[in-house]
Amino acid sequence: QVQLVESGGGLVQAGGSLRLSCTTSIRPSSTYTMGWFRQAPGKEREFVAAMYWFNGVTQYAGSVKGRFAISRDNAKNTVYLQMNSLKPDDTALYYCAAAGRIVGVSRKDYDYWGQGTQVTVSL
Questions:
Q1: CA quadruple 1, 50, 28, 22: dihedral, nearest 10
Q2: Mean pLDDT over residues 38-54, rounded?
Q3: Measured distance CA(98)–CA(94) in Å, rounded
Q4: Contact at 8 Å (CB) between 4 and 96?
Q5: Strand partners for 93
Q6: pLDDT of 30 higher than 80
Q7: Which sign, positive or negative, has the C-alpha torsion 91, 83, 6, 4?
Q8: What three-state secondary structure class fits 28?
Q9: For the segment 83-123, what is each residue's pLDDT rounded down to a tens digit?
Q10: Chain Cα centroid distance, residue 17
Q11: I need a surface site. Which of 12, 14, 49, 92 has the fewest CB within 10 A?
């Protein structure tokens, strides 16, 4: 069982930045995909970003491309989501997710989930 623990959420003004962290209980194997999703009140959970652990290739939702960046620290079994130029529309509960294989943007393909960390962007 893989455990994921997120941190780094908070309250920030529009235009500001936050960095979320997700630490895994195991060292992701080369086949893993690590992802970030978010869910705003009354909305479905949506894809934000993902990274293939074996080669570092990334994917982003169109709404965050150019503002958010997913990265990793192999030594710490940690994946990050750097969020810049934040907007009120980015307000949501952000979840880290992992899949034991190469997957894409569908939340149904991810096997493990963190508890979420709240990001609130004010005007």
A1: -70
A2: 96
A3: 14
A4: yes
A5: 39, 118
A6: no
A7: positive
A8: coil
A9: 999 999 999 999 999 999 999 999 999 999 999 999 999 99
A10: 15
A11: 14
